[in-house]
UniProtKB/TrEMBL annotation:
Transmembrane segments: none annotated. This is TetR family transcriptional regulator. Signal peptide: none annotated. Pfam families: TetR_C_33 (PF13305), TetR_N (PF00440). Keywords: DNA-binding, Transcription, Transcription regulation. PANTHER family: HTH-TYPE TRANSCRIPTIONAL REGULATOR BETI (PTHR30055:SF234), HTH-TYPE TRANSCRIPTIONAL REGULATOR RUTR (PTHR30055).
Length: 192
């Protein structure tokens, strides 16, 4: 693929990222991405033979964004493993709430070719990082299971908060106490 072709391929992904941020995953049609990129509606098929491949490339960008934010948040290794998990959890929930369309796309593995375009290579390291932190915080626990349960809990908090359900049910005005409660439930109460 020459530079011009690589440029158009990158532009299609960039337009898709912008579109999912603005209008959500449901707006990601090949025709709309092509229109916004200023190319014929058939042009995306040249670089992405299936719609799923283009969606996977867009989701990969989202995982890259989330991964960079998580890396920045947990970089300070002077904090305890629990502090680093709390930082990761905060980033995860804020990302989910501020980039809802991208977040929805990223975790819809029923829509994506999860091994296509290196998507697993960008998504699995995030989970593996959480597992390593859980292992350090709770050496007595089965880290993959605890990390999976914590991740599912954080995902549910983000989803239900985004829909307005948790505010209604709990009367909470802020999501942070719910995130702390999830950490306590999976890691044990925070040492005082």
């Amino acid at each position: 693929m020459d530079e011009q072709e690589q440029g158009l391929r990158a532009r299609l992904v960039s337009v898709g990222v912008e579109l999912v941020h603005q209008e959500g995953a449901q707006a990601l049609t090949l025709r709309e991405i092509a229109r916004r990129a200023g190319v014929s509606h058939g042009a995306p098929r040249r670089y992405f033979p299936t719609h799923l491949e283009l969606l996977s490339a867009i989701a990969r960008e989202g995982f890259g964004e989330l991964g960079a934010e998580v890396e920045e948040a947990v970089r300070d290794d002077t904090g305890s493993p629990r502090d680093r998990i709390a930082a990761l959890a905060g980033v995860y929930v804020r990302f989910a709430l501020s980039r809802r369309g991208m977040y929805e796309l990223m975790f819809r593995h029923d829509l994506l070719e999860s091994n296509g375009l290196g998507l697993r290579g960008t998504s699995l390291p995030l989970f593996e990082g959480l597992v390593a932190l859980v292992r350090a915080a709770r050496p007595d626990a089965r880290a993959p299971e605890v990390a999976g349960a914590l991740w599912a809990n954080l995902h549910g908090i983000a989803q239900l908060w985004g829909w307005g359900s948790l505010q209604l049910a709990t009367g909470a005005g802020d999501v942070d106490p719910l995130v702390r409660a999830a950490l306590d439930a999976h890691l044990g109460p925070e040492p005082r």
